[in-house]
Known about the structure:
By secondary structure, the protein is mainly beta. It has one domain. It is 8% helix and 33% strand. The protein is built from one helix and eight strands. The protein has one helix spanning 54-60; strands at 4-5, 16-20, 25-27, 35-37, 40-46, 64-66, 73-74, 80-83. The chain has a six-stranded antiparallel sheet, with no helix packed on it. The chain has a two-stranded antiparallel ribbon with strand order 3-4. A hairpin with a 7-residue loop joins strand 3 (25-27) and strand 4. The radius of gyration is 14 Å and the shape is globular. The two termini are 18 Å apart.
Amino acid sequence: MNWTKVTDKLPENNQRVLAFVPNNRVFLPGKAFEFEIREVIVLVFLKNFYLDDSEKREKHGLHFWQGEGNSNHFFSDVSHWTEIPLGPN
């Protein structure tokens, strides 16, 4: 699997990818403040997400990563991404 640095190349807009989020904490349901580290997660890349919001663009960057459930991430959270591999034939 080839990982791409976000500083080298970005996914297509609305592309669903595997994203590497260093030290990503996922809180466990039903467990008070307990979490585990899951650094590889599925996210959708949203290009120019904050284009019309200069305040948020300055604070969080132009682009955004949309997650599933509560796993949204600001652009700077993700260091690398790769295409989701095809399943078995």
